[in-house]
Every structure is written in structure tokens, then in C-alpha cells.
Amino acid sequence: MDAQELVSRYDAGEREFSTAYLVKSNQSGVALSEANLSEANLNGADLSGANLKRACLDKANLNEADLRGANLEGTFLYGAYLSGANLEGANLEGAKLYGADLSGAIMPNGSIHE
What we know:
By secondary structure, the protein is largely without helices or strands. It has 1 helix and no strands. The longest helix is centred in the first third of the chain and has 9 residues.
């Protein structure tokens, strides 16, 4: 599945995309609220400005992902891999980050998580 197919399927009402392989895909500005992307591989993906409100990204690989300005409000990120991800300007209100790897991630306030 590529980025375009994911959006088409989402627009058709599908929400189940666990284990999707979208490495370095361009998902900038995409609306995927309440989608299940658990264990998806989004390594290096551009998700800047994406709406991922209440999506499930448990154990997803988001290493080096661009999440600048993304809406992650209420998103499930249990055990997600966010090493080196850019979360600058992202909305993390109510996001569940228990066990997430944020090493080297750029946080919403511009600081780098150590």
C-alpha cells in the first residue's frame, strides 16, 4: 500500500491500517483521525500538519518522522518509536505516550528530548 492508496481507503471509510509499510511516504496534511496504524512502519514519513486525532499508533515506527504541526490530540502512542522525530508545533494534548521512545525527538516547544 502506498500513501495515495491509504488516503483513498480512509476516505472510503476504512480505518484499519495496522502494520502498514509507508517508509518515507509523504502524508503531509492528511486526515487520518481515529485510524488504526498500530505497528505501522512510518520511518522518515512526512506527517507534517496531519490530523491524527485519536488515532492508534501503538508500537508504530515513527523514527525520524516529520510531525511538525500535526494534531496528535488523544492519540495512542504506547511503545511507539519516535527517535529523532520532529514534533515541533504538534498538539500532544491527551496523547498517550507511555513507553514511547522519544530519544532525540524535537518536542512541541522546540526542545530536544534526551
